Backbone:
């Protein structure tokens, strides 16, 4: 039973399109995150939600909009996709700063 | 702002040799430190978590030490195997639960 699951695993789309990535955790954690990993493999925090409330919003274009319907789900919607958005997006969760669990990643390719 | 550095960026060793991976951080006021492993095309897997009050943690062939005053952690992997080949990342959690990641050390264990 996967602890942090995200879908889709692969996403190939054209520039200008809108797409969403979904994330769910079944660990009972109170905090969920979205990270972006670029071609150089560096992990960059994008957003963090604690109990459905946004607590971290790094310098990310406003084309990216996270949505947390409940504390077990954190979705990422991206509008007007650009070539530079191509990356692997990771969802993660933890509880009160404890051990961090990651999903398998969603590889987004913008053509 | 917390900065986390991992040196070297890459490491290649023959099978059987012990691995020593370094992580340094600039702000010693931390909540915990975690070591992760990332295989190509996969998510991050938590290896060890050291609370700020601890000096080390062990799991099997892995041992991680923490010296908060000098801002350092070291991950030791004993008797390396080809299956240990991966990228190893450390992440520091601040007292406000904000995470900072290093860029990782890519390890190759030669058979």
Residues:
């Amino acid at each position: 039973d996967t602890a942090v699951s995200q879908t889709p695993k692969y996403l190939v789309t054209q520039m200008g399109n809108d797409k969403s990535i979904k994330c769910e955790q079944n660990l009972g954690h109170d905090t969920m995150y979205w990270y972006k990993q670029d071609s150089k493999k560096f992990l960059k925090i994008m957003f963090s939600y604690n109990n459905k409330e946004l607590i971290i919003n790094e310098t990310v274009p406003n084309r990216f909009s996270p949505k947390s319907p409940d504390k077990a789900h954190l979705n990422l919607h991206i509008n007007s996709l650009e070539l530079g958005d191509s990356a692997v997006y990771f969802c993660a969760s933890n509880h009160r700063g404890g051990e961090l669990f990651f999903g398998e990643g969603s590889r987004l390719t913008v053509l | 702002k917390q900065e986390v550095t991992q040196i070297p960026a890459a490491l290649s060793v023959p099978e059987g040799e012990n691995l020593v991976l370094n992580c340094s951080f600039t702000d010693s006021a931390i909540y915990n430190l975690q070591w992760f492993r990332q295989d190509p095309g996969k998510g991050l897997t938590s290896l060890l978590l050291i609370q700020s009050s601890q000096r080390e943690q062990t799991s099997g062939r892995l041992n991680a030490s923490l010296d908060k005053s000098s801002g350092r952690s070291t991950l030791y992997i004993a008797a390396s195997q080809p299956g240990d080949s991966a990228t190893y990342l450390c992440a520091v959690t601040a007292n406000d639960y904000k995470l900072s990641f290093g860029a990782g050390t890519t390890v190759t264990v030669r058979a």
Q: What stands out?
A: The interface with chain A takes residues 31-32, 34, 36, 38, 41-46, 49, 87, 89, 91, 93, 97-99, 101, 103-104 of chain B (CB under 8 Å). The CA atoms of residues 66 and 73 of chain B lie 4 Å apart. Chain B is about 0% helix and 60% strand. The two ends of chain B are 41 Å apart (CA to CA).
